[in-house]
Amino acid sequence: MKRNATYTCLLLALVSGCRSSQTSVATSTSRPPNIIVIFTDDQGYGDLSCYGHPTIRTPNIDRLAREGAKLTQFYVASPVCSPSRAALLTGCYPKRVGMHRHVIFPDYDYGLHTDELTVADLLQENGYATGMFGKWHLGHRPGLLPTDQGFDTWFGVPYSNDMAQFHRKPETNYRYRLPLLRDEEVLEWEPDQALLTRRFTEAAVEFIDEHSTEPFFLYLPHSMPHIPLYASDDFRGNSPRGLYGDVIEEIDWSVGQVLDALDAHDLADQTLVLFTSDNGPWLSFGDHGGSAGPLRGGKGTNWEGGQRVPCVLRFPPLVPPGSLCTEVITAMDLLPTIAPLAGAELPAELVIDGADVREQLGGKPAGGTTPRSFLYYTSRGELAGIRRGAWKLLLESGELYQVEQDVSEVRDLAEKQPDLVRELQALALELDAEVSANARPTASTEQLLFDPARP
Ligand SMILES: [Ca+2]
Fold first, then answer.
1. Mean pLDDT along residues 134-153
2. Has residue 164 got a pLDDT over 90?
3. Is 81 a catalytic residue?
């Protein structure tokens, strides 16, 4: 009851602050909104029709953007998988939760600490049904799985889809294997990867069907388009962009299935749907890697192409259709932004790095006189740079870019702005020192849930 009352008050406050009247939303909505996060793996800023790709067809994701907002300056907190995922789910820089040390490999014994509050924990505690279908990559030893981190149920893979094929266990030279799990049980070893996008989608739709009459959180982190690329027979060979295009078009089909399920249950108006990617395109793999569009660099780098990713969001009570949001927003903002939407209170003592960006998503510029700061960290978690307002400083090289005018980072203005370089350098060190001083531990265990290696 408390939750519903809070939510109604919140909606009324939102409505009264909006230019257009949406009173009907406030009166017709009697439960907290559903939250859906669709998270792709290594998809670039330029890999969607609505972000300017000339041949990849993404009508369903484009529809989401048309009915909601397209974000042009949305950042993930790391240019690689595990740290980026930790930040999305906790609202924190990866370093603050200890998950900044590159990605989790099959024989790693640690993962995100269960003392951390994930988006799933918060929503589960507030009465949501919570389901995850796809790639986890935040630890796969006992006690570190999605079902230990706020998800009622999980169907998916524990780490990247290439780890079984291209990596071997040191010392033994054993080959790693990719398991497919449901909750804490291995269902299959080496599943047919051409079917993963489809199977995760079918499980997600089933979850929506099962929970349509109660608030739910659906997390759908596809294992594609991380290499090696696989598309099902229905999509392979269709796209002029080649296999990479086929994979993206199957992911777009998946988004369409989710939107159709919402429509079938008349839930579109009370569901927040967010679509984004965990980091930029893996350019080392030629045409099997994606495109960052006009942005420089890709996965693993701190150029914009590594961390600025496509992001579209639909939530009719808050976001006017066809919005273009050019504010700096990060994946760490998810937790503090959905908490009030869900009528959930974040613990007063919880230190996080994200911010509540409901106003910016609703079309208003960020409040306050101080421009927002965002720290860049390398794939191994070292402080790499800072963005404040329109400016970006890379620490090691000392390069300074005005990244709103110069999105491709080709005009280094450091020599012309020495005072700004010094100021941003000092600010980056100061902000990072606070994160380091207050960093929290990961959790580890010697126990195995499954043996990822075999001769
Ligand atoms: Ca990734």
1. 98
2. no
3. yes
